[in-house]
Specification:
Helix content: 25-40%
Oligomer: single chain
Strand content: 15-25%
Largest sheet: 7 strands, parallel
Strand order of the largest sheet: 3-2-1-4-5-6-7
Structural class: alpha/beta
Distance between the termini: 35 Å
CATH superfamily: NAD(P)-binding Rossmann-like Domain
Number of domains: 1
CATH architecture: 3-Layer(aba) Sandwich
CATH topology: Rossmann fold
Length: about 230
Amino acid sequence: MPTLLLSGANRGIGLEYARQYLADGWRVHACCRFPDRAKELKSLEGDLEVHKMDVTDALQVANLARELREEPLDLLINNAGVYGARSGFGSQDFDAWTETLQINLLGPLRVVEAFLPLLEKAEKPCIVNMSSRLGSIGLNQGGGSYPYRTSKAALNMVTKNLSVDLADKGVIVISVHPGWVETDMGGASAPVSVEDSVSGLRTLIGALEPGQSGGFFTYEGEELPW
C-alpha cells in the first residue's frame, strides 16, 4: 500500500488530495495545525491518520518525522500555504511578508529535510511542492502580490535545488500550479473545481518519470516557464 504525507490537509486542495488518495487505497498521513477542528478531514473513509504539524514549528515537524520513522513514504505533498498580505508597491507589511515566507518557503524545505529518510525507504519517492503560476518570473505581466509571488518563486528554486541534490537518491521533485481553484483562497468565482484540479494533479504525479524532476507543471500537465 503506497503512503502519502500531506501538509495543509484540513481544507480546500489538501482535503481533496486526502479524499482522492484514500479512495484509491493509499495510506494517508494528513497534517494540519489544528486537528481538533478538522472534522471534515477526520470523517473521510480509508487508512487515514491525522497529525498536528505546523510547518513553521521545527519541533513539531521533527517529532512527527521521528514518530513515523519506520514507514516508507512514497509521496510527500507540501500543500500548506497562505496568500499573505495583498498590499501593493509602497504599502508593504514587511512583518506579514516574512510570515508568508516562513510558511510558503521555509516550511516546505523544513518538511523535506525531516522526512527524507522515510522517502528513501520507498521504491519511487516523489516530492510535490504546491506553487503557483504567480511564482513564474517569465509569466509575470501583472505585478503586485509581492509576498505571495516571491514566496512561490523562491519555492520553485527550492524545487530545482532539491531535484539536483536528491537525484542520486532517486527522489523526483516537482512544483505544480493547481489552477485558479474554487477554494477559500481562490474564491467562489474561480473557474476550476477542487475535484478537477486534484484529479489532474494526481494524473500528473502518477505518471512522473525521473527526467521530469525539477520541472514546473500545471494541473493539466503543461510545463510552465520559471
